[in-house]
Write a structure and sequence with these properties.
By secondary structure, this protein is of the alpha/beta class. About 35% of the residues lie in helices and about 25% in strands. It has ten helices and nine strands. It has helices spanning about 65, 70-75, 125-140, 155-165, 185-195, 200, 205-210, 230-235, 235-245, 260-280; strands at about 5-15, 15-25, 30-40, 50-55, 80-85, 140-150, 170-175, 220-225, 250-255. The chain has a nine-stranded mixed β-sheet, with helices on both faces. The longest helix has 19 residues, at about 260-280. The radius of gyration is 17 Å and the shape is globular.
Length: about 280
Amino acid sequence: MDDTGFETLSEHGCFGGRQGFYRHESRAIGLPMKFAVFVPPQAASSPVPVLFYLAGLTCTEETFPIKAGAQRVAAELGLMLVAPDTSPRGANVPGEAESWDFGVGAGFYLDALREPWARHWRMESYITGELRQLVASRFPADPARCGIFGHSMGGHGALTLALRHPALYRSVSAFAPIAAPSLCPWGEKAFGGYLGDDRAVWREHDASTLVEDGRRCPPILIDQGMADPFLPTQLNPDRFEQVCADGQPLALRRHAGYDHGYYFISTFMADHLAHHAQYLKA
């Protein structure tokens, strides 16, 4: 660990580039945070576009690099991949680990307003501010060419952060996102716990209501498996498609036989990286 609190945990040669895992003392979170970075071979000669991936419930910074199969195509396209953890850890907030869909591993990529979560659960500020700045200062990334994507809870995060911060991201996509969290049990639990009972506040963190209220972002690609067990109760892609029809470019692709897991994600990962590359390398 250096005098700024940054520590390299491990680095590994990967498709001509480097897959690394890191930890740092986060000012935004008030706790140490871990993240992963894949640096493609093209970064040896010049800064490269950077793509942030937000993982889903219960995942860590290791889930995407290990399971998604993204590095080979990212190396071909010259894209840096950054994967943060999904929540603060070690805060010792009462009840933080009592359920798998709230608290530890379930930060929902927002800044909590309700105590006792408000002090540390500040994932929106972390992703859009501190982590972007850290990656730009420590790695050969071009901060002017950033994209964002994610899965499930992380798909929700990618959509909402792109809609809330359109100047930060040139490209956006999602796998099976929680596309209308105000209307599903996962979202109601998270929003109520982190934000309180005022549903007007919830609207600012729900991709469907953000689009309905006039927010826009770059053209969105979404892939959804039709054998996804969470599709009927948690994801609401039809609702998101409906509101996007009024001026938000969206390609929503439905795939028979695919579920919610990383076999599905890895199948369509190359399409998503190509989608981002067309905007980040333009």
